Amino acid sequence: MQKKPYLIATASDKKYGDFLIEEWLESILKNVNLTKIQILVLDYGLTKAQKYYLENHDVIVYPCKRDGHVVNIRFRDLHNFLVQNYYEQILTCDGGDIIFQDDISHLFEENKNEYRAVCEDLAPFFDYFINSDYFYKEDLKDIKETLLLKRMINAGFVLAPYEKMKHLCEVLVSKTKDATKFGPDQILVNYVLHKEGFIMLPTKYNFVPVTSLTEFYIQNSIFYDKDGNIIPVVHNAGNLDFLRPIENFGYNKDHNILKEDVLKTLRTFYSSLYVINKPKKEIMIISKKVENFFNSVKENITEEQKKQFLNIVKSIESITKKK
């Protein structure tokens, strides 16, 4: 069998393996033209049954060592795979919170010399975590200056030619100080693409309901834009489950219940996070809004989630002290 020229790469463990198979992969098999596309799953602890199913559906399962947060070490292991296996174009995407509702194979044929990715309308709270806990001190100034006032690229869906994807992986490996923490990958993908240039894809190719200003609706478990067009790629993003506005997210029937109150609250919340260059009084008001939002959800989240969210509040408060 002739080797396919393009690659879709993701990563998973047994916790997300069922979603990967039943929703992510199923949606690709049903909607994406795979004539030229190979699928790769970086394996961080899939069960034997999950691996068997994937391999019997022409998916390459690549065994990896889990010695850090998967969102970070996946770039190391994707690089290792690519060193041994050449593909003209590679799409790296999340496998635990994305579904494909329409064909995206044409994206591999367009702007083939460039990075391609989607920018978010409302940026999640990442920029204030550019600090020495995550990155080496010698890199902090360059990262901050490169990303200053830039739109946030969502790292969950990035297309690139072979050499550029290898380079992206190398930068993420070399500049991530602590691979066990959630977040550095998002910052460094933004750093590389904004520094070196990229083609901004339409929002529909990585549609994040909570950070997109595009109006949408759900009918029979399918996401549509306000004009009735099927949204090709839907990404129910959020490191914390309570920050995801779609309940029972998936591809098949009886999925995708929109929590409208959560969506409205989170969009307001993320809108308030653009606090750079705002007066101290306004930042203090924003800080209070964030604190109120936390109080409204704290009874339904874990202690670790509370800790992560309180770090956001502290980061905003630290800005007011500098003004």
CATH topology name of the largest domain: Spore Coat Polysaccharide Biosynthesis Protein SpsA, Chain A
Helical percentage:
25-40%
Instruction: List the total number of helices.
Output: 9
Uncertain ranges: none
Give the CATH superfamily of the largest domain: Spore Coat Polysaccharide Biosynthesis Protein SpsA, Chain A
How would you sum up the global shape? globular
- Number of domains in the coordinates? 2
Overall structural class, as computed from helix and strand content, comes to: alpha/beta
Level-2 CATH architecture of the largest domain: Alpha-Beta Complex
Overall number of strands: 13
Looking across the biggest beta sheet, what order are the strands in? 3-2-1-4-7-6-8
Please tell me how large the radius of gyration is: 19 Å
Q: SSE order in H/E notation?
A: EHEHEHEEEHEHHEEEEEEHHH
The profile of the biggest β sheet is: 7 strands, mixed
Residue-averaged pLDDT: 87
Strand content: 15-25%
Name of the top-level CATH class of the largest domain: Alpha Beta
What is the first-to-last residue Cα distance? 63 Å
Short description:
The protein is of the alpha/beta class and 323 residues long. Helix content is 40%, strand content 18%.
Describe the structure.
There is one protein chain. The protein is of the alpha/beta class and 323 residues long. The protein has two domains: 200 residues, Spore Coat Polysaccharide Biosynthesis Protein SpsA, Chain A (Alpha-Beta Complex), CATH 3.90.550.10; 52 residues. The chain contains nine helices and 13 strands. The N and C termini lie far apart (63 Å).
